[in-house]
Amino acid sequence: MHAGGLTMEVLDWRALPAFDADLLAPSMPDDVASLVTRIRSADAVLIATPKYNFSVPGMLKNTLDWVSRAEDQPFRRKPVAILSAATGPLGGARVQYELRKILLFLDALVLTKPEIFIGRAFSKFDPQGRCTDATTRDFVTAQMTAFQQWCIETRAIKVGAGAERPVWK
Question: CATH assignment of 21-153?
Answer without folding.
Answer: 3.40.50.360
